Amino acid sequence: MGDFADELSDPIIIPTATIPSYPVSTVQGHAGKLVFGSLKEQGKQSKPLLVFQGRVHFYETHDVGRTLLPAYIASGLGAQVFLATNAAGGINRLFSAGDLMLIEDYLNVFLRFSPPRNGNFPVAANTPIEVIATPKNPFDPVLSGHILSAAAELKIPMQKGTYCWLSGPSYETPAEIEMLRRLGADAVGMSTVPEIITANQLGMKVAGISLVSNMAAGMTGEKLSHEEVNQTAGRVKERFTKLMREVIWRL
To answer: Is the pLDDT of residue 220 over 70?
Structure first.
């Protein structure tokens, strides 16, 4: 999904390894680059864009604060919209590998995260995080509406559902997936929720899209692998890129 960055005109590319304190992604398929640019098409140009090509997961650093860097960098540079994407395991039995799902809600109960109220980035490892009494659903209905209408115009099927984030890096067992299904999860992954909560608190309009890269454990009887995730992403990336372009023009 990070290949969308290749769509940007006149790109400025900054490897995250050159940014002080920025953690290095260790997962296959996560390039570890910040790409600045814009979309250009038939004489028109989009607003400036920043694409985070690859992310760092909590399980890579064991420090939630490090996963929040994209949200703080985007906010510090004046971004008004934060669009998060991920690859996830499908739990909803009506889903299939390769589906795109608009995230309408999330489960944040197993590795509970709430950002600091003062908006300061928690730099040190294991920094205490102040609990917010009443979490707000961060998803902007207008931005989510743009995604749904763009998908409809392009005739791209778009599922809707609840995303659950877990610490990883191991895939869940069939019993755990059945538990999540009963709790109302439609898809499960190892990222995204801390970033979208923080981006919303920092004042950005937030939306999220999951690629159902595989059906979760116990759903098909097949063994899960990261290779399958990458294969599905490769198969869907053209459709995903068309959707992202249309959504950005609608902004």
So the answer is: no
